[in-house]
Write a structure and sequence with these properties.
single chain, 516 residues, 3 domains, 3 strands, globular
Length: 516
Amino acid sequence: MNIDEIHWTTQASYPVLTILQTLPLVSMVLMLLLRKSRYIVQIGTGLALIGLLIAIDIYRLFDHTKPALQLVEHIQIFGALSWHVGVDGISVLFILLSNTLSLMLVLYSRIRKLNPAGLFLAVLFTIMATIQAMYVTQNLLMFAIMSGIELLLIGYLLHRWASFSDGGLCEKRYFQFMGTGIVLFLAGTLMLGWNYAELHNGFWSFNINDLKSTAVNDNINSIVFFLLFYGLAIRIPLFPMHGWLPLIAEHGTVAVSGVLLLGLKTGVYGLIHFVMPVLPNAILQWQEFIVAFALIGIFYAAILALMQTNLRRLLAFAVISHTSVLVIGLFTLHHAAFQGSMMLSVNFGLATSLLLFMAGLVYHRTHTMQLSRLGGLFDHIPFIGIAFLIAGLSIIGMPGTPGFDAVHLMLEASIVRFGALLTIAAALGNVIAAGFLLYAFQRAFLSPRKNSLPAYKVQKITHTETILAASMIMTLLWAGFHTEPWLDLMENTLKVLESQFVQPGAAHSMLNIEVK
């Protein structure tokens, strides 16, 4: 056993990570076998709740004072492909996020009555199995394979349960972009395996520890970085690789595909867990290039958001704009910025999911996402409006939500690394974001509806919808008022990551200015 790894038997009485990954597969089989049961959604809710309890137990078992990989299980499968799983502080955080949103998705499926319920839940649990595998695997090739399976299954969700018919354009764009991303990522993965084999007598390995300890040939260093980075940037999504999202938001499933693609932040996880530790020299070389594009993306997406007439497209551009802020934090390569970026990932995951859920509930009642046809909803469904507002304020860093501390950590580190100009620009982008999210809330919930439009009867909020919205709000606020445990959880993991980068002064950056 590697001295940097702690086997699960030293911490747990059962192979908790194996159970975490197999439970969704068992749930999928049960959903198919019991698909005709009238209690299928209730059974699915119970299984998702068990998954969340296992995730909480992983958090309980994890020793955040140790930087070592923990709860490790390692079995060689075939050649360079291995069953090597374990968790660090970042993995635990993302596992908690994914299982929380999994439970919320099952509740949402009950509200929306996505039929056939058994098939939908079976697909959903299979997707969750791939996501759990991505969060615990220490094998880059396994991460790539699970990513491909996950994206294929989400594509099936778009095909089977899309809200609007657009002649297949939505699915076509999705598979074009995601297919390209997987091909790029897989190519970069194979090049890393080949580089390792060149230095180890032809033996291929995709193990993260092996790859981190092996220098990448200077001739391919930048090529491998951009293959992996662009492969993940499409999924994040980062400007200018975002073209799939507005179309998916407008014509795909109102909430489900968005939560799976945006709320779970698998692209961000792949970047910080695999790409940054393996290719630190390339990160330092191209750091300012990535930050510059992210800065452009903040304003580009924010301006386009203000121009939207469709609520779903507006939310899509909001995600693109705020994701750019998160990426700036990551590429600041400062410990506080890493902390802020990880907290922003969780904050955006929860807040974006809450926005999408509430948009889905609005669509379920009004059958439109056109802002010109909405209005006055706060009089009919005030709690949905409140949840939408809290989610929007959370994205822009409202005190009491995880985004508040996260944004401040990121901006403080950005000043140290890049100086005031870029930091002020990023903060200004956040102010613009506040404008378009509050504009969306005002148009949909507070503005009087046009007299020329036919009156609609808006169904009152149900008990299940209340539970969904209240659970998401309490999770956001609880995480926001108690950020210290999450920062402690990631502390040692991020220290190890930060140690791999040379810390140049702020004056080193071409984006820095001197403030007098």
